[in-house]
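Q: Sequence in, structure out?
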Amino acid sequence: MPGSDTTQPTSELMEWEQYGLHTHSFAETDASAGGGQINFNDFPRDFLEGITIRNGRWAAKIGGYVKADLIHDYRAIDSQDFFDPAMIPVGDPQRTNTNFHVRQSRLNLDARWLSDNGDPLRIMVEGDFFGEENSFRLRHAYGEYEEFIVGQTWTTLTHRAALPNTLDNVGDVASVGRRQAQVRYSRKFFDQRLTLAAAIEDSRVLIDEEFLQFGDPRTPYPDFIIRGRWVEDHYQFQLASVMRKVAFQRTGQEVEEFNGAGLNATGLFHVTPRDRLYGGVLWGTGIGSYRDLPDVAPIGGGQGTAVESLAWYVGLTHAWNDRWQTNLTFSEGDINNTPLQPADSINRMQYLATNLIWQPTESLFIGSELLWGLRVNNDGAEQDASRIMVSFGFLLP
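A: Exactly. Output:
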């Protein structure tokens, strides 16, 4: 669908093209996974098409999709609307469950314009309905000007183009797909193939549930993250590092701080025009909260320590033709439990997903996905879960 202003002057279009307002001038649109088929981790790529409003040097596009998920669990898992192996009830009686929801449906507004001095600006706001009782939940809300991003979007630790393309909203147990408030500075080098970035970001600290009886988590400082990303036509590679302080305050006592740090190495490679390999390794101490796991665990006497963890994932996307694609993802996460963590603390998780997605038109998709997960506790007890889901979606142009 063309924009509402069909009489836009040629000179104005040339100005938009010159400054790249509809292509790759912005940090959160420069790492697309490539290919013309649907990818749930990409923002809309063709800014000048679809539902747009234009007036001179500015334009805004309304985007998003409606997605309905029909889910059936063959083995028990407590996360009904998404598949999270951490929520597998180890040792509980088995049960089946069927669920139908539209909570992953998204709406976004992408506004871009040229400032008085000719520099491009952007504001992006997006949400879904994973809030409490299906309420609207904020995913992205940020502004971008020159080399700066301020607001909430993907953490600088994330490599969006290397995220698994699953119908499941969570994705796996190793990739970092967290969004958080931040101030980020980026610079490009070598004909824009290399991007270096540094950010100060919101810090969230999680502690082992058993430890909560002794006190509360504290966030004394924001997280500091740096990354380097190299992008070529057929491959991308990113290395990112996070440095942070995680803290715990026992009831009636002073705050105890621990050093936390981690590395996230990710990449993707287009083996053929129809096949894309991707994967990553996440390792660190005190960074469990980046995967919704504890940062701090007890070691005795009300004392705690930062927890070490290692996670990895690998996947393949295959396009059968212009309308059909399959995605296969496997991941594993391991936690180095402390001796005094409870027996039912998570020690290891595995995740496997494979799907088949059909996109009969640019505005419609139908897909089916098989999911399997395993949770192993600190005492060696384990339980797996399995699910099938069928998704129907309508994309805004």
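The domain at 64-104+156-395 is CATH 2.40.160.10 (Porin).
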